[in-house]
Amino acid sequence: xxxxxxxxxxxxxxxxxxxxxxTQRLWFYLPLGGMIxxxxxxxxxxxxxxxxxxxxxxxxxxxxxxxxxxxFFSEPYEVWNITEDxxxxxxxxxxxxxxxxxxxxxFEINEVDYDEWKKIIKFKSIRMNFACEMPxxxxxxxxxxxxxxxxxxxxDIDTILILATNEKDINNIYFGNNxxxxxxxxxxxxxxxxxxxxIENIGEIREEKGYISxxxxxxxxxxxxxxxxxxxxxxxxxxxxxAKNQIDVSDKAGVKSIAYKFFxxxxxxxxxxxxxxxxxxxxxxxxxxxxKFYENGTLEYLEKTNKDESGNDLDFIDSLKYAAKFVxxxxxxxxxxxxxxxxxxxxxEQDNKTGYLFTFNYRLKGLPVFIPDIxxxxxxxVSIVGSQIIEYKRIVKLPPQExxxxxxxxxSILNDEKEKNVLNVTEVLKKNKNYIKNNYIMLSGNEVEEDxxxxxxxxxxxxxxxxxxxxxxxxxxxxxxxxIDNIVYYFDLYTGTNYTSTNKYFH
Length: 507
Hints:
Elements: H1 2-29, E1 59-65, E2 68-72, H2 91-103, E3 107-112, H3 114-120, E4 125-135, H4 136-144, E5 156-163, E6 170-177, E7 182-191, H5 194-209, E8 213-216, E9 226-229, E10 240-242, E11 244-245, H6 252-263, E12 270-274, E13 280-284, E14 289-293, E15 299-303, H7 307-310, H8 316-329, E16 340-350, E17 353-364, E18 367-370, E19 380-385, E20 388-394, E21 397-398, E22 401-403, E23 409-411, E24 413-415, H9 425-431, H10 433-444, H11 450-453, E25 462-472, E26 475-484, E27 487-492, E28 498-503
Parallel strand pairs: 18-25
Antiparallel strand pairs: 1-2, 1-4, 3-7, 4-5, 5-6, 6-7, 8-9, 10-24, 10-26, 11-21, 12-13, 13-14, 14-15, 15-20, 16-17, 17-18, 17-19, 19-20, 22-23, 25-26, 26-27, 27-28
């Protein structure tokens, strides 16, 4: 009898011990007030992303000298009919190497006026225009991988020009801010002929394949605006594609797989909520972390600021590295990081800490993709305070893939535009002249006297011209993107049809 009692006591003690251990484990894993964190502890030195990939320019203006230009919107080189050439045409990679060698040596900086800038851009050179302004000292640090102090040039920049020189000549490099008409000459002691060789290679390819050129839009207008000119004689065309959401909310398994990557080992304690409108929400704790999938393909991740994780304020480049790493780990970049680029940023304040909101966009076959659902060049948004990501939002639309004759995947072309002719910018402007004029008068807020409306001139108001893919319903359509006094228009490349216009001031 005594042995049975002792055995019961031992069993009760064991049950108590097991219950205690399990309870402790439950206390540890239960999502109570941020007791644990799903944030990944990443050290800056462990981030192996080349941040200069997403600092790539929005477009490249190649000046062959003598008023002969070409404009490209891509790096790597994937534009239309120049995709498989053995010549060295890696524009951004070559330019980065030249800049890195130049900026790690001694150099001096002097401000130059706009008149000198206008003269310089006509020389044989490569000019890189970025999608947004960025701190010049941060850019130099990213390119050179050194903590250079540049007290003479604290302005933000949005363009860089590298002159083509012979092997024994000294390169001159220019940094500028087009919106402010501020330009700087960076004078060093480096002789480098790589830019000249690059331009010569591009010229040879263009001559062999009849590739399009770019010209100043109007020689009578004192503006640095170039437009690609299609001859329609050498098979130049840009195809349309069908478009689908990269994230399909109806794919429950796919959505759950993405959610698991965000929450990792704590996924068992995440609550799934299915809304009537099709939205799927994964919530951790009492709203400490939330992941939302919307029917239109948008993903949104929110995380409350954690003092232990947000830590100290980080500078522009270090914050950008953390943001890029987060995108890399969570759904990844559309296509690849080489086809992504920083499209904008601003500083933010959260719980008395300073951080950044970065926006990124992506290119398809060399052209930026514009999605009207999010209004501007912002396919991906990342907000970061310290090293903590507090918000992540993305909407990406891509064409479905098909196999070509070689068994390789390629985007599925919607229609064959080879039989169509591209409308050049002057033709598009002429076709839409009345609409543009009336829209400008209505949206700009500028009062125009009745007797002057008849002679109203569009040309002097044009600020930028580009080529982009515009998402229209379930299609990716190549369009002209024309900025006229901060109003952005999108016109079909082949018909001139106006799809939409947006005012930059309201972004």
